[in-house]
Amino acid sequence: MWSSCHLSPTIHSLSARALAGVVNASVGQDAGSREHIKMAQQFFQAYMYNDDDFNWNHGISLAQTGNFKAAEEALLLVQNEKYKAEYCYISWLARCYISNGQPRNSWELYLKMDTSNESFNLLQLIANDCYRMGQFLYAAKAFDVLERLDPDPEYWEGKRGACVGVFQQVVAGKQQREDLRDVLAMMRNTSNPQVEYMVRIIKKWCNENGVKIG
Q: How far apart (Å, rounded) are the C-alpha atoms in residues 191 and 182?
């Protein structure tokens, strides 16, 4: 269950000053020149905060190498609304949020999008990345919407696994008990014989542990 979206970076033109920083960094690394590396750092510190092209390219490059914390910081410096509306930007920022333990922020990105193929792709990214990171509540939310948009059995399987994951986290004291209300509501969106059994198990635990599920 992996998103069909390919997160290839869209390269925006670097300014001459930012490009100079990149060149100095490259030369410094290749030649082991501290002087060039220091010059590169000076260029970046001086210009990165107001150069959207640099922040775009730098942020996505960092994300591609798995440095999601620095990537998030760079991407959030982008001010150009046109850039921020591009799916490439949104999807990489969502992946940064998830990798940095902020799945709710990735979900907010989805909620701001109009219904489209891109929003569907973002749902797949959120569902799979959150599941992989153990962020089961938002994985379940994404799989729930995917299942309602496309009755592919894989989406039900993903949602079922994510809902069980939330339940296990609640039982272990690692997730808020109130989240089980959302889980039960999402489970009931599915017409599947397994739903009633799972609902009974969760409701039984809630009754035994004083959790009001409404």
A: 17
In this prediction the pTM is 0.79
Q: Across residues 44-69, what is the average pLDDT?
A: 81
Mean pLDDT of the chain: 85
Measured CA to CA, the distance from residue 114 to residue 87 in angstroms comes to 12
- Indicate the Cα dihedral angle 145, 149, 155, 159, nearest 10°: 20
Q: Which of 9-23, 55-69, 115-129 has the lowest mean pLDDT?
A: 9-23
- Return the half-sphere exposure (C-beta side, CA atoms, 13 A cut-off) of residue 10: 12
Residue type, 168: Q
Of 21 and 179, the one with more pLDDT = 179
Of 27, 29, 5, nearest in space to 129 by CA: 5
What is 45-84 written as a DSSP string? Answer: HHHGGG-HHHHHHHHHHHHHTT-HHHHHHHHTT---HHHH
